[in-house]
Amino acid sequence: MDEESIDWRGAVADKVSQRTGMDYAITGYDSRACLLELGFAKPVEDPDPDPVFKTKGHNLAKQSFGDSAAVSVDLTDDDEHLPTKLVVDYDTDRKWAKASVRRDVEMTVNALLPGRWRPDWNLTDDTVQFELRPTMPQAIPHPRPSTFGDVTDTVLPYAEDEDGRVVTWDLKAAGPHMIVVGRTGTGKTVLIIGILAEAAARGWKIWISDPKRVEFLGLRGWPNVQIVATQVAEQVAMIYKAWELMEYRYSLIEAGEADEDDFEPLIVCLDEYRDFVAMVTGWYQSVKEKGMPTKCPVFEWIGSIARKGRTARIHLLMGTQRPDADFLGGEMRDNFPARAALGSLSPQGAQMMWNSPSTGIALPKGVKGRATAVTADGTPGEVQVYWTPDPRRATKSGSAADLEILESLTPPNTVHPPLRIDIIEEPFDGEDYSEWQEVLAAELTEISVEEAKKPRPVVTRTITNAVIDEKPDTQTDDGYMPTEDLRAGEVEPGDLVQVDGQWVTVEGAIEDPGEEGLWCIDYRTDEDESEMLALNETEMLPVRKPDNSEIEATGLLDEN
Fold this sequence. Notes:
The chain is an alpha+beta fold. 27% of the residues lie in helices and 25% in strands. The protein has helices at 8-20, 52-65, 99-112, 188-201, 232-254, 273-287, 298-308, 325-328, 330-334, 347-354, 391-397, 400-409, 435-440, 449-453; strands spanning 24-30, 35-40, 70-75, 83-89, 117-122, 127-132, 140-141, 155-161, 166-170, 178-181, 205-209, 225-229, 266-270, 314-320, 338-342, 370-374, 380-387, 419-422, 443-446, 484-487, 496-499, 502-511, 518-524, 530-536, 540-544.
């Protein structure tokens, strides 16, 4: 062979392999000695193909961020090779500054990769990291308070986020007032009782308005819970006394006799605010006299406390089933920066609570105490509320676990004794009081714990003109519209779809970027498991849309 030929050595190896019937390759060559060395050739093994989810993750990133994006995908070490992390280094583009563009990418990842993913965008460095969300516990017993009697501690823990970090209501950092939203059965009352237990442990005064009349009876006689008002007149009188106390404290500051740090904190809990408004509206119509305001003054007192309560150390804890614009719009809404929403919200409710139509709309229906709240990093995220038993129900059931939790939460000392609201029916000057004047003249009388726990006679009154609005017959009580058959392409995040006879919550619904007409629906079951449906866009399935009529059209929705 021609030694000057480029491939002569390969030709020699091929010829030797043919003559011997075995694979040889050139392993050495000494041109001066005219020595050619051949050895057995190692077989070239075909590389193992990348696991399917690694390839899919790369493809998704390239389709979303462009071919120039650098992508890395971490997988589990087991046989399934499931993805756990997706990191993308992309080119600078101003479109990524838009939250809606980023949200589309997040929906794509959540819909097309298994599990639930959370993004961490670094817009300065042009990188984004998607991590698989950890599995959250479905129940967390309320832990024992770290200290008792520390009135200066203004941080009230009430939940944990998905990383196990404690979620708190910090009255100084997060805001002086808090609103808790949640329909019946989601755990709203449990959260409120938990916060009140933490406040009581610090030795704070607690006054409670209970329009349902039975939700907080178990806190009568609890250390430092002074009032649990169930009757309308009592509730109005309690709020009036809180407003009077605020004005008195302001007068002390004005006179130079005190400053903010001299006052003991007072938590005023107003649960079921919508019911409260309806009841008070009807009651006020029956006691209103000529010349009195058309609207009951109690609502102005509440608004005044919301505006000025921080300085007087008077804090509102408000519970309501829905974040309605007619009750929580404008200034009232702005005065409650600390918020928690139990259960799934409609897109309009999410916009009202979090200024985002997609935050908190797809929580599992079957997990009580699952909520959306501001987490340790300052952004709204999914949390699990502490399980705090109702003392009345725990005592009746005899649950050892619940009674143990309550024992760990009970303050060893009562700093503030229970109070009774005495409605003054006959003034000292002998003139008759009107029913409205009786409420304004009410007095707070100290009573024993035993007396606070005793059942009280119920005063009933027919409430008229108390209906705020009525739902049309086409709506239901669970926050969703009746079932309708829709195409897969019409399903949206926050909807309920029926899968194998079970209603599940849709987290994401997008067209598969790799196959036209294929619609990917990412959903969560009541057992908090994440699954995905891949359907033809025109395929029909049962769907229940959120009841969006619960939120009035406001300027807030223009951001959607």
